[in-house]
Amino acid sequence: MPKPITRISKSQYLKGLQCPKALWFYRHRRDLYPEIPEAKQRLFDSGHEVGQLAQTYFQNGIEITEKYYQIDKAITATMRAVNNGYDAIYEATACSDDGAYSRIDILKKADAFGTWDLIEVKQSTGIKEYYLDDMAMQRYAFQGAGYQIGASYLMHVNSQYIRRGELDPRGFFALQDCTELLEDRLPHVAGYVADLLKILNSGLEPDIKIGDHCKKPFECDYIHHCWKHVPDYSVYDIFKGSQRQEMLARNILDVTQIPVTVSVPGHKAIDVDAYRSQTVYVDKTKINGFLDTISYPIYYLDYETLFPAIPLYENASPYQQIPFQFSLHIQESKGSDLKHIEFLHTESGDPRPGFIRALIDSCGRKGTVLVYNMGFESRINRELGQAFPRYQLELENINARMVDLLVPFRSRHLYHPEMMGSASLKSVLPAFVPDLSYDDLAIADGDSASAMYLNCVKDSISNADKKKIFKNLKDYCALDTLAEVRLLEVLYQYAG
Ligand code: SF4
Fold this sequence. Notes:
Elements: E1 8-9, H1 10-18, H2 20-28, H3 38-55, E2 61-63, H4 71-83, E3 88-95, E4 100-109, E5 115-121, H5 129-144, E6 148-157, H6 169-172, E7 173-177, H7 186-201, H8 223-226, H9 235-238, H10 241-249, H11 268-277, E8 281-282, H12 284-291, E9 298-306, E10 322-331, E11 338-344, H13 352-362, E12 369-371, H14 374-387, H15 392-400, E13 402-404, H16 407-410, E14 414-415, H17 425-432, H18 446-457, H19 463-495
Parallel strand pairs: 1-4, 2-3, 5-6, 9-12, 12-13
Antiparallel strand pairs: 3-4, 4-5, 6-7, 8-14, 9-10, 10-11
Helix pairs in contact: 1-2, 1-5, 12-19, 14-15, 17-19, 18-19
């Protein structure tokens, strides 16, 4: 007989609220637990940094350093810290009699009469619905362990903060009192804890079907297992609600099986038709309309950015996109040779002043500036103009000349069945230009580019490794603008 499970942590509770089967897998099927993807690990690391910074907000604090599995030791260490008179206890741990245990980022003394406030630190810039379940469970665990709890605060990143000199935790964070918001959730925690413990101890895998809950509020760790029978492009990508249910009831999963009599919403009708017939959809009039908006010389442009939660540079805000690199291919006339210019900030310090100067020097004064997903580059130029007003006019001039190459693909002027509903560059390029690929590159997406560059900025790697990263960044960014060149050629071909 396996030992009964008598406790459930806050993160397990949240997992169980999203899907009891995911919790069951987590506790009973460790073989199914996937490796943590790099992007998720980076999010954890960033959250840890923000958590460490939050601790500097308070005076006379102590951290409970027991490992996550040393629950009883952490509970004892927390009580010892309380008895020793600390005003703030980081990673304080408590467990209610019925098995709800929680670590709170900060347990903060509220008065001299034994009342404590709970402070949950998040790296987001505001409140999210599921935080309230998280905080209700914490409150329940601490109250159930005998603590007298005053307020429950959410301590999140203040998006309005602008760094001036040394980082100021009191400006960087915003405290939001959520005590009242928890009132309607708190009475249900005991029931949920009991239900989840019962499921965990039943020995039976819960019978739960896949659905929208697999991706909300988090992408579940077990999608690779539960969704393995679902094709890469399926009715889940096409329909919602009752239409999806109708397809599932008829055992239709693959897009090719959707009957022609079924009405498909919006531009997905084009996607489904193209996929069923495996033919490219072309609207020549609209393609020509788009091409008419372009004038030579063309400046094919792409940026790479950093967007750390904790601003690294003067005059920057949390999560602000800080450009450190661009690639630019220049073409004087249709079909003429390409000139390539690139900028990568390889020194220490703020990359923006050098970036702006190089950009303005390279982009000329007339002709189209062609980007893929214009909202990104134009927003960065606007923010650069605000932070460095002397360059504002020239940056506005670049924005005024911008044309978005995403439009003809997103608006379905041209659609390839291999795009499978997505107009991202990473979907469109292999569909139309299969000989140009990101597959062999050491850096193959913007998030990795950002993370690699951050490693260089933080000086956590050797000079030789930095050199390698800089080369990989140049290869990656250059491919993005070469992709734009080739996709414009594709549009000209289909327009003709
Ligand atoms: S993939 Fe969906 S059904 Fe499977 S465990 Fe996760 S949330 Fe539950």
